[in-house]
Amino acid sequence: MNTSNTRPHAHAQQRRSQRILLAVSVLVSGQHANGAPFSERAKTQVVNAHGAMILLRETVVIGQRIKIKNLATNEETGCTVVDISPGSTEIPEVGVAFTKPAPGFWRVSFPPEDWNPRSPEAKRVSAITQPGKPIIAKK
Length: 139
Prior knowledge:
The chain is mostly beta strands. It has a single domain (3-110), classed as Thrombin, subunit H (Beta Barrel), CATH 2.40.10. The chain contains one helix and nine strands, in the order E-E-E-E-E-E-E-H-E-E. The strands form two sheets. It has a six-stranded antiparallel barrel with strand order 2-3-4-7-6-5. The radius of gyration is 17 Å and the shape is globular. Mean pLDDT is 79; it is low at 1-13, 125-130 and 135-139.
């Protein structure tokens, strides 16, 4: 992989929303620099209200416009490539940001921006799941 398009994770402390580990099947499409179209089926690794991190074999560059289609809902939205990292596998980790707000794109509820696992609300009740039934444990 060409690492000239990668950048350090300096923006990690400037996140606009909570991240959630969530594997969603997506179809990523766009155009190469020569104008040839590409399309690749991929999965998200992490999502947030403003985009995602996707394992993507297709070569993309920071600033490139692409489209992401959520294969569960068939909803499609435009994105901009904002980060490329080698990742822990041979497949690069590509960070994308939605070009227009799409808070419901992933069909999940995100914690509020000021949420913290040490907050009183998080400590009050925790859910522990066992196969087939949830168990609520009070702290």
